[in-house]
Amino acid sequence: MTQPLPPRHSIFKKVSTKLILGVTGIFILLPLETFAVSCNFQNSDTFTEICGYLEAGEIKTGGQLNLHVSSTTPHFKVNIRRAGHDNTNLLTTSFNGAGNYGANSHTQLNWGSAYTVNIPSDWTSGIYEVSLNNGRGSYPEFVAIKAAQPGSHSKVLVLDSLPTKIAYSPIGGKSLYGFNSSNGQASSQVGMERPTGRGQWTEHREFVGWLDQEGIAYEAASMMDLHRDPSLLGHYNLVILVGHNEYWSKEMRDNWDNYLTTGGNAAIFSGNTMWWQVRFSEDAKQMICYKNAMADPLYGIDNSRVTTNWFNQPINRPENLSIGVSFRHGGYHDYTENGVQYYVKNGMYDDGSNGGFKVTDASHWIFEGTGLSNGSIFGRASGISGYEVDGALFQMVNNHPVTTGEDGTPLNFQILATTPTYAVNSPSGVPGIVYNNHNSQGWGTLGLFKPSDNSGTVFVAPTIDWAEGLQEASVGRITKNVINQLKSRTTTTDSTIINNGIGNGNTQIVLQNNSGGGGSLPVLSLLILLISKLIWKIRKNSTQEIDK
InterPro entries, from UniProt (predicted)? Predict the structure, then answer.
């Protein structure tokens, strides 16, 4: 999801011209400069001198980067550094022979032969910035370089969100969205080998730069690595999602779920997560997403791979089961429609929490050392609640938010903070109205849960802009607390989570341990949990019967 951006520019433009005297004595108008490179991302991010993209495939330490470049000059340099504000350049390589290619295909750009850059084997896995410079301009592309031996440097893994970045890229004239596609018509298929743009990587740059600044060791990998390798996540204790991770293949989700089931932990600092299912061509160079189940050729043939929302027919696999929340019950912060603003900081009806999160259980270990109390607001100054936020359905019980489970969210999801949102994709069909939610509106719900009895713990800060608040003391401390707590696997039940025995039919309330937070539930709360669990099972069974 996103808001419309400025209209696209034309594919080519002349920079300047000059008159020269030809052999016939006639003046002829010739270009002083070559035609400008076309890399207009239609979000105030435009590159006219040089641009490039990376070939699809595994990128790891000791391996290679294969770059394709369009440039107004044949000479250019490649500079590589770890992403982050203060990280220094690690490698510079010069090349010659670049051509000036047109961005005239959204499925296959074909910008000449690849330029190969060898990745030193002693580099540490991470998110890296690959900067192209031809003396007239520069263009930054970003890449997750995985470890040749996953988990050898750190048991904390940060995943990129490459499919989502490609989905929004308009290079070649089309994206998966109408607002930045030619003739306003989105494509159902886009090439993975296209530039992604600087703006799409903001949250990853901020987050991994902060990790390096804080001395927190991490490794990185691409979502495409997760798609290809079912064993990847098993090398880690904690897997982190950042920013905007909207597009997932069945393989990605299956591998994610299996990792959690076998005891792996996760921390989601991401919004609008796991919203669409996609497929990839066999060579992983094409991404397919019809966004309309009936239009997908696999409808009725292999419904598990139909490219629509995960919660929708015929997939019927709510993302809440895997990440605890959904965008359909969250929404936007600071949203404008027909000139009306919704949930704007300092705007009408702002209770002081718009743009930030309000604490609902300050005794929990994630708030240790923050100085926050129940009702405190954090992250508002930097607007970490935005621009898209996910939530779980909940009702208030004894002034405490309790998940209902009606949306597929595990009933042990413990809500620790909330933020108001404008639910544009509400199942009610009425934007902003979520009838079966607290106050009949959208909410972002920060908290943690276990997908099953023996799984790892999943922390959820369900907002795209979390990384932009890391320099706030409370936000940084919460993030550190989460990483420190979850970077090691445990073989015993995390007693800071309410365990309702999902998966074995036994209901059990686990009391809080000394690490703080949670506590036991009141009888009324327990009754609501039991009823909502029964409702979810009945609805699920009814849906299965309809599909038969």
Answer: DMFA2_C
